[in-house]
Amino acid sequence: MSENGALPRLGKVLTVDTMNPNVKKVDYAVRGPIVQRAVQIEKELKEGVKKPFEEVIKANIGDAHAMGQQPITFFRQVMALCTYPQLLDDNKFPEDTKSRARRILQSCGGNSIGAYTTSQGIDCVRHDVANYIQRRDGGIPSDPDNIYLTTGASDGIVTILKLLTAGEGRTRTGVMISIPQYPLYSASIAELGAVQVNYYLNEEKCWSLDISELQRSLQAAREHCIPRVLCIINPGNPTGQVQSRQCIEDVIKFAAKENLFLMADEVYQDNVYAEGCEFHSFKKVLFEMGPEYSSKVELASFHSTSKCYMGECGFRGGYMEVINMDPEVKAQLTKLVSVRLCPPAPGQALMDLVVNSPQPGEPSYQTFIKERTAILSALAEKAKLTEEILNTVPGISCNPVQGAMYSFPCIALPERAINAAKAKGQAPDMFYCMKLLEETGICLVPGSGFGQREGTYHFRMTILPPTDKLKILLNKLKEFHQKFTQQYS
Amino acid sequence: MSENGALPRLGKVLTVDTMNPNVKKVDYAVRGPIVQRAVQIEKELKEGVKKPFEEVIKANIGDAHAMGQQPITFFRQVMALCTYPQLLDDNKFPEDTKSRARRILQSCGGNSIGAYTTSQGIDCVRHDVANYIQRRDGGIPSDPDNIYLTTGASDGIVTILKLLTAGEGRTRTGVMISIPQYPLYSASIAELGAVQVNYYLNEEKCWSLDISELQRSLQAAREHCIPRVLCIINPGNPTGQVQSRQCIEDVIKFAAKENLFLMADEVYQDNVYAEGCEFHSFKKVLFEMGPEYSSKVELASFHSTSKCYMGECGFRGGYMEVINMDPEVKAQLTKLVSVRLCPPAPGQALMDLVVNSPQPGEPSYQTFIKERTAILSALAEKAKLTEEILNTVPGISCNPVQGAMYSFPCIALPERAINAAKAKGQAPDMFYCMKLLEETGICLVPGSGFGQREGTYHFRMTILPPTDKLKILLNKLKEFHQKFTQQYS
């Protein structure tokens, strides 16, 4: 109080001028202004405002269930049993769902999924993850002590980036990320105050990764920071490419030679559609390259319950495997994750079911396989459809969607549209996507949110809407693009 | 590769010397070395190693279900329905559980709890939280736009601290925390590189908070940083005190006068046991103080599904309410939380049930009230029991456990024990707790993990074990303390 008892007239403690400057630099396009406007438009539609469309189609985010994909029955049955164990007496649930639930509950404190788990994650889940990786990678061993369960893959990625961020000014940690990239990376780098080091994917060669470009990017970055991490997303987000085994080997050699920590974001490992393409994990390739590499290169790889055929984004389940991590650093990692107590137990349980799915002979096997196959075939069909229809549009050119859940086509924008965007202070592809949203209800994310070569424009579109809706969407998009081009030509 | 093709012999990229220096400074006693040793001992017992006890009793962490507390039936029924909606056709579930589940699912993308939610949290849940706060606070309005759902309270607390951390050197943000404190605070402050500013609670007056001590602490801190935040935990962790309305009013006046952002950690709001004690939320007191304060003081308050009578720690559910936050900062907050996509949807749904529990006349009401009352009465009884038995031990003095879930007694340690600890490089109370664990299997957390006045020693013990086990634990502890005192006298 001042002398006369009145409160002093001070401004707010927390303002944009006094807040964490790194947070201000954070950008996350996938949930940016376009999406906020889409939510507004949905409200307006509900309130009866007339629009040239009846619903907003959100093709901005890899959210399968929101697009109508049904959950896998086996997963949800076991989760219901874990949640309300009284159902274990119910004969409507197959025996294998019950035995899975019992096993998970036995690993929980007080047999309750409501207890904290160990910070690294439930023991039996980490064992199951290790077994899964070993099977997936043709027998190359995986150690449960190297597995950390996470709150979705994002959580794991941020945690490893956090460990790696150090130095000041020219000694600050540089993080090499692909352009286009998934904006979790740029956002986390900004938040941590690390240095973003861009390497460009080769759009002409189906978004492939050229080692010469890695070399160029590294060289340039060494002028102003210390690049210490190389991040790879495979299958690619937002670009949908699937890396060849050779490319992965070359990347590992590059990381070894240049002393870079490798981060492999492999959350789309089951989402491979194109003929001749196959998923190779960085872990497997690393170990196939022999001890010269497998005993040396530091690698963290990430997986999640949110993508593939599961699409269980809401559960925030995930894991990471760390390879060749210095044991003292690992102890620091374990300490760091303990501050947040534990990842959500339901997400951990779900991750367990993903890596330990029904086996031939078990009662749930047939249904499980049927459901999984149906989802993955539909995605493959929609990947093809998207590429085909988009490439019929003059001014749009779309690489094959080899994997993941997105197309990232290049769009030709007329000079006048670019100028109109600049006049509004918008990126040209933001201007395009905003207009698309207002006129058709289709919600996409502009390429500028992911990064792209100067002077090129793109958008990211998920392939997740149901096939009939996807066709409507693609045709509306085609029509819009033609109209837009005409209008600004 | 070097000229001859061999890889250069470089050390690891990531070592304790090159890692994030702030992460190294992080400490989290609740899951520290004592707990790691307890886990080891449990393994040894399983392997048949002979010990002077048969089981480890973990009284180190507020993990109710792990200590045998049963989940609330209503919560788990609705969660099972949300997880596996086919059960909505099952007539074993009461109608009110079904209507809650339907309402939650209707707010989820694709009616699935597996879809991402909005980053701030499911709309209808935020509305229910706002209604709950309004009821709790005697009608003082709460705006759903000020509610952010979180991954447990910890997540919310770290997020707000992150926003507040800025400056360098002497302009670095200072965060005022009570000593003893819950180590999430010190850990997050270290990780963010903010400055920890200690104010001491008054053990002689039942761990109360003296404004003169806040003033002293603030004055001293202003010499080397800019204190901008004042954190309060009420009911107290680890100290179990419940703040009086007058004290809260004084704290708010202090924050207003000194221009401090208030963070009120109120996760134990239903855990009040002592006669004459009552929970007052900071929000309510702030608004009762009139517009001079209620229009000015910036406040964030936190709640969780993990404590109170729920004990659903594994779900990682929680919310925060922000009051008087600058609208531009709020936009930054919304952007920041969007990078992690969303809090776990099951935790959000559970939070909804906590704030929107069965009402009189609904089929689940009777059972719900019976279960809740039983848990809270048992906790009240155990709070009393703990205080009483501990105070019969010469050399242990324990304040009343007015609320929360912990006792934090002061222990007198003989000079020789202190020297023996020093010789081992251990804090004296760590030495004591480690010995207690090895000899009795009881796992407590040493007071040094929470902070305490120089030259005093404490431990934190939860009151959560079942009454019969708690009695055994307390008597074993008594016996140990007497033996220990004798041995080192």
Automatic annotation (TrEMBL), chains A, B:
EC number: 2.6.1.2
Every Aminotransferase class I/classII large domain range: 78-476
One GO BP annotation of this record: L-alanine catabolic process
Record-level GO cellular component terms: cytoplasm
Transmembrane segments: none
Enzyme class: transferase
Pfam families named in the record: Aminotran_1_2
Pathway(s) where this gene product acts: Amino-acid degradation; L-alanine degradation via transaminase pathway; pyruvate from L-alanine: step 1/1
Gene Ontology MF: a single term: L-alanine:2-oxoglutarate aminotransferase activity
Gene3D superfamilies recorded: 1.10.287.1970, Aspartate Aminotransferase, domain 1, Type I PLP-dependent aspartate aminotransferase-like (Major domain)
SUPFAM superfamilies assigned to the protein according to its UniProt record, in alphabetical order: PLP-dependent transferases
Catalysed reactions listed for this entry: L-alanine + 2-oxoglutarate = pyruvate + L-glutamate
Cofactor(s) needed: pyridoxal 5'-phosphate
Subunit and interaction comment: Homodimer.
Family: Belongs to the class-I pyridoxal-phosphate-dependent aminotransferase family. Alanine aminotransferase subfamily.
Function description: Catalyzes the reversible transamination between alanine and 2-oxoglutarate to form pyruvate and glutamate.
Protein name in UniProt: alanine transaminase
Lineage: Eukaryota, Metazoa, Chordata, Craniata, Vertebrata
Gene name, Swiss-Prot/TrEMBL: LOC113114441
